[in-house]
Sequence to fold (754 residues):
Amino acid sequence: MADIVQPPQRCAGSIRNLALQATLILLVAGLVAAAVHNAAQNLARANIAHGFGFWNNTAGFDISQTLIDYSSSTSTFGRAFWIGLLNTLLVSGLGIVFATVLGFIIGLARLSRNWLVARLAGGYVQLIRNVPLLLQILFWYNAVLKSLPELRSSIELPFGGYLNNRGLFLPRPEFGPGIDAVLIAFAVGIVAAVVMCVWAHRQRKRAGTQVRIVWPALGAIVGLPLFAFILVRFPLSFHNPNLGRFNVRGGLEILPEFAALLIALSIYTAAFIAEVVRAGVLAVSAGQIEAAQALGLRSRTTLRLVVVPQAMRVIIPPLTGQYLNLTKNSSLAVAIGYPDLVQVFTGSVLNITGQAVEVVAITMAVYLTISLFTSLLMNLYGRSVAIVER
Amino acid sequence: MARSGIWNWLRANLLSSPANIALTLLCLIFLAWIIPPLVRFLLTDAVWSGSDRQACLASPDNPQPGACWAFVRVWSSYFIFGFYPLGQRWRVVLFFAALAFGVVWLLWLSAPRRDLGALYFFLALPVLSLILLSGLPAIGLINVPTTLWGGILVTIVVSTIGMVLSLPLGILLALGRRSRFPVVKTLSVAFIEFVRGVPLITVLFMASVMLPLFVPERFSPDKLVRALVGVAIFASANMAEVVRAGLSAIPRGQYEAANALGLSYWRTMALVVLPQALRVTLPNIVNTFVALFKDTTLVFVVGIFDFLRTIEAARGDPNWASPITSVTGYVFAALFYFVCCYGMSRYAQNVEMRLARRSGPRER
Fold:
């Protein structure tokens, strides 16, 4: 009977399907082979080296912001790569923090019962989302930061800082000996706080008693390092920037390129995060809140135990997507000359070596790694919070 | 009666508690702080005519000059056409008109014969535009090389071609991703994940520096075409994900019913699944177009004179360069992008509401 159920064309179809797939493979392989062949010919004609040998050659170009030691005369292209990557990570990391804070504020403001607050937040989201990010970056850089006063008429900030069109110059904190003790105390404080949380949780499960640990935990995280700080006699001093005739020496320098990129990325991504947050909170059905109220939970407890956990489940995956977008968008740095990975690598290194294929491939591989790693984490998270149905 | 209504509304929405009253006051202070200077800068103190930067600098008549609209007026034809030859600009205007006609036909949901509209938009219009813009000496239209194109023309061309190519390619990729053939599926997934995992800038760089390497030297594509390839690749990968979301919203019964009727795979897709899936995702498709429209500004980086790049160029002109001209240029650009993007997203919202109304009772 079984072979009657099987439609007869299935068999013929499967051979046809196999042939179809084989043709597709051949087609793609052929295209790739042709591209490689052409590339080899074109590169040979233009007399461009190939391979990753350039990695250890001396770079020979300057980079305006270096988080690790670098000198144009001795450092290699490989070193330049790490500098670009670190700069990308720095601006993305800070951007993520600011965008999250601002985005949550705006997103919750959009849900405010106060009509004016909700309208203002809505206006912010509409305005920012509908103007291209590149335009916003250029605006902050060229129209705002670059039209600050010149060096000679720098704006003096409290505590010895300066602001001019070459950047923001702040006192640089310098840590003396004994700072390790403070860091260790900080780590101990965090561990202590975690232990307290776990203990309080167990206590509540076992005995049903609420133990208030917010203040002791906060005390451990803030108090312990503070105590250590006093104990080792304030191992912290500030180096003020010095305003010279032609430049500013010493101090902590924040480049206008960095600031413009950071401001624009934070403001732009915050608008998207606000929408994510709003959607997440709205996704918690009104019945849940009513049920919590019917159980006699106070509004803060309702928020903490009912609304936030359910909203976060909805919020976190798209939020991560926004973080990835921010990281990828930080590549727009190239338009204003902030030395991020793309600017250093597909800009300077590509121009000097001419090895387009290798340079673009390395750059893409970095972003691809970040993306794939994040989506791996998100899949794990998704599995861990998936609602277990009875 | 009406007064008490307003009073009730105020009390409920602005003054319901002391904290709310404080918030309302804060907002009002913020508005009072920001709106008058904005109006002053953009309208009352703005300079509307003049022929160089002197007009927009502080003078006894206008000690605190506002926006320099004179700059936008003087440069407006450059912002729209770039360096497109003066005598040939009617061709660009005609292209804009033909495009607007197609867009209205497609987006106006109750327009007659929207299937013909789709044919016009996806087949006739590209050919027509190519002939119009780039020229065809055989019928008396001289060739205009793409290096002369610029401004809004390039922005519109890049985004429209991105949209026209990304929709069919995106549909194919989305179908490929759901295909039961392992080879097709793997290739589609790899392509989509790869392109979506990297920034558009790197795709554009790839298209602009690697594409010429990958083809024989004689066929080395022109700069604009390279950027278009990059944009199309990026847009189709994004579109594929949007279409995939729409496909997964179609209940399995629809596939089974089509199978039971004996429809082949392509007929099932073309007649049953895709029409429903695309209708469901139309708002998302439009939102992807909005993102694409904003993203076209990045072609700036590979040396194409799109609208934003023309603003940058004009801003740097020594005759006009001043901080106020820069701000004015950016405000003008922001206004243009805002109007276009906001219009598109409002349209998407309208469609979404229409869909919700239509399918509402059935879902309950």
Summary: The CA atoms of residues 248 and 341 of chain B lie 27 Å apart.
